[in-house]
Each structure stands twice: as structure tokens, then as C-alpha cells.
Amino acid sequence: MSPQATDRDWVIEDTQAWLTQAVIGLGLCPFAHAVHIKHQIKYSVCMSSKESDVLELLESEIVHLEQTDPEITQTTLIMAPFCVPEFLDFNALVKAANRVLKQLKVRDEFQLADFHPRYVFAGTQLHDPENLSNRAPYPTLHLLRTRFVQAAIGVHPDTDSIYLRNIAMLQSMGFEAYEDLGLRARVLSLKPGTEQSENN
Questions:
Q1: Are 110 and 146 in contact (CB under 8 A)?
Q2: What's the whole-model pTM score?
Q3: In the chain, at which end, N or C, are there fewer CB atoms within 10 A of the end residue's CB?
Q4: Paired sense of beta strands 75-79 and 41-45, if any
Q5: Dihedrals φ, ψ of 11, to 5°?
């Protein structure tokens, strides 16, 4: 197995561990469990450090979901371990990703959620525990089918209560207890000045 393939496997395994132990295990998202146990999540890794390659992969994953039965693949996580290690740069990538949805005229069909190892909500500080709800091992774009999001909200219409519960729970839990989950990123970001161009 090549080093690149090993790294890709680690990225997927680390992301799956975060999903099962944090997102599902802590109840951060009540909608994640069903698609996980049905194996309806696609994990796609961009090994490039170039934002343009991440956006190109996003386009291909949009096409894939358009052509795939939701019962087979309902949603896709795109992880980019070597791209945008800084959160402000990641925010710019998220804006560019949303422009891709607009350019492809699929904003009614798909929407994005985003996660980052250094995620910081507006009005919070870097080490505020509530930021843990959106911290994944790697910079991640979550491509969702809008109609399924709307259906999930229909079942659980008070989505604000989820957010407020998460804040209270994570503040009570604290960083130390969260770190005890053992979540990690085994694939480290590239050093400045080095690049990879390999994609999916």
C-alpha cells in the first residue's frame, strides 16, 4: 500500500471515529446515527493542498449524489487534511464552496455544513468548549441533500434546542473530558512551502 493510500485510510478512519464517538456518541447531531448505521455516508478525501482541487472534488461529489439513489448514498463528507489548516482560510474556502453550489444551480438541492480542527464560532474564543461541536480532525465539507435536511427538521423542528443543549453539554464536559475520547488526526498538515497535487 502506498504512503498516500495509507494516509487516505487514516483520514477516513479518524473521521469515522470522530463521527461515532463525538457527533453520535455525545448526541451533537440527532440525525447522524441513522445514515451512519445504514452506511449511507460517503467519505471522500482530497490529498491536495490546493483549494482549487478541493472545489473540483466537491463538484464531482455533487454529480455523484445527483446520480446516486439516496438509499445508497445520502450524504458525503469531504476531508482535506493538507489544505487550509488555518480557520480563517477555511472560512474563505467554505464561501468558495457555496459559490460552486450557486454556479451549478444546485443550492435548492444541496447545502453544506463545515467542520475544522480549529473551528471558532462568532463571538467565542479559541478555547471555548462550545467550539468543539464543529471541530473535526480535518478540514471537512459536509454535502447534504436539502430535502432530507428539511425532513429531519420536520421530525425535530426545535433545532435551536439542539444547539443550546450542545453548548451546555460541552461547557459542562470541558476540553479535558472531550480529549479523553481519544480522537486524533494521524495525518498532519503540510509544512508551509510544500504542496501535494494528488486529488481523490
A1: yes
A2: 0.90
A3: N
A4: parallel
A5: -60, -45
User: What is the tens place of the pLDDT at every residue in 85-117?
Assistant: 999 999 999 999 999 999 999 999 999 999 999
CB atoms within 10 A of CB 43: 16
Burial per residue of 14-23, b for 16 or more beta-carbon CB atoms within 10 angstroms, e otherwise: bbebbbeebb
Distance between the two ends of the chain, CA-based, in angstroms?
Answer: 16
44: exposed, middle or buried (C-beta count within 10 Å: 0-12, 13-18, 19+)?
A: buried
Q: 192: which 3 cell numbers?
A: 508551509
Strands 110-115 and 140-145: antiparallel
* Residues contacting residue 3 through CB under 8 Å, at least 6 positions apart: none
How many residues does this entry show for the chain?
200
- CA gap 163, 67 in Å, rounded: 33
The DSSP code for 21 is I
DSSP state of 106: -
Q: Scanning the structure block, which residue is given the C-alpha cell 488526526?
A: 185
pLDDT tens digits for 155-184?
776 777 888 999 999 999 999 999 999 999
Joined together, the cell numbers standing for residue 76 give 458525503
